[in-house]
Structure prediction request, 579 residues.
Amino acid sequence: MYSEHNPPILELDSLGFRYFKDKPFINDLNFSVGDGELIGLLGANGSGKSTILKLASGILRPAEGQIKLWGKPLHLYKNKDRAKLLCYLPQLLDINLPFKVRELVSMGLYPYDIPPEIRVDEALEMVGLLEKAESNITNLSGGERRRAFIAMTLIQGAGLLLLDEPLANLDIKYQMEIQRLLRELRVKKNISIIMALHDINFALQFDKVMLIKEGRILGIGKPEAVLTNDLLKEALDVNLEIKRQDSGGTFISYGNNF
Amino acid sequence: MSKIKISLLIVISISIFLISLYLGPNVINPFHINDIEKEILFSIRLPRVIVAALMGMALGASGAVLQAILKNPLADPYILGISSGAAVSAAFGLLSGSYLFGKFGIPLTAFAGACIVSVVVGAFGWKHGRMLPERLLLAGVGLSFLFSAVLMLLISMSSSEGIRRAVLWIFGDLSIADWSMIPYGVVFITAGLCISIFRAKALNALMLGDDLAHSLGFSVHKERLLLFISVSLMTSASVSLGGTIGFIGLLIPHIVRFITGADNRILIPLSAVCGGAFLCISDLIGRSIVSPMEIPSGIITAIIGSPYFLYLLRKKDVLGT
Prediction:
């Protein structure tokens, strides 16, 4: 799949991590991300999705193994250089920020001494917040705030986005809008994206999904291959049904779980 | 609009600085200065106004930095216990009445005390190779209580003249200002100010949270350490120049933020300028209102500052809570 001329953008090789000395949380984790791939990270709460994203972004240091970004060990990058290649958006965002929307979004240009020609207004328009550019962040709704942070992420111009539940708190319209936007970026700018999410129906639309349980990968590959009844039961401890539509598409049914 | 507001604030601050030179118990006409007035202006007023401006700048800027690092709108430069530590060591020297370094005695002991306390607070705030804001804050508050108790103990055990001087100094005594203390004040305060202004982008990013600051290309713990050093330098130098003066570090950043926004690249230098101007005018009031007696500047800043602060507390947007 990857070659000398087309190396993986991100490689996690035999990665181990522990929060407590004698209790490994992530053990022997291996996966890689290719050019323009959209990967969904699925798993129950506490399964290790956020930890994997934090390891991949360099926020957490692995106890074992190595992470390579564009073929070079992640820890050898200067902070600013790394920020131009890789961008991480956390799940929890501070709600008491005294900044205006425009100020926040333009912080995405901080890694650059000479900012690239990306207009803050364009990013704001993409996430539907142009009209609120001069509003205080504290006056936005939860979903609007998340969209403002996504605009900041977009403006950072990195080729690899690590997004921890970016669709949380968004209404269905903006969940679809942000997904559409990310797909568009992937096609136009060849950006690779790893996204932690809970909505399995959204994950079915991804190129690749990774199912996580207790810090290890249960399955990785095409959604139809990984999101099977058995694996979902094992990962999420709930019975879900994969249903096929006449048109050929698939969706997850909650069945008789209620 | 913002540029007009910023220019206006700077012009007002410079005007206040100049006015404090010429107004006072004796009003000096800048266009007709005789020899005595020249002597008053250059030997007494100018060093005093410069010390007030330096202290106010240090307090305003370090207040802005601390409120951002600690993510606490009620933080001020004294919350880390640096000033209490300086006060204890200076008061100890003042009350014992024996100084080795002549007139440098008070500032030197205060500065030494402030530096030692900064290192102790920094050490308490440091865990697993990181500087943790919550630990810094709690260590500072804890040490402040301890030093206040020691200070009270020292005062209660001392002679009456010692008490008066110590109390004056604790509330900010600018009457001891002279040229000799200014150069080292300029060096430390300028150094602290430069660090904080050059790291203002990082401070903005830190306000978004450690993970986002990392993602934006900043070394979170290194930046926090640098900013802590800048605050320690400015606070230590300020306390040793003229004692502890409250409310400037708390209020000025809030007022400036209200006018120009929260971007630290503008907030820090403007808080410095406005802090300097506010202390100049407080000192002018303190030395003029009941002349020939003087009211310590710390009392004036608190009298002006407290009601305004309570007003700000009711304004949700200003404090960002």
Q: What stands out?
A: The longest helix of chain B spans residues 35-69.
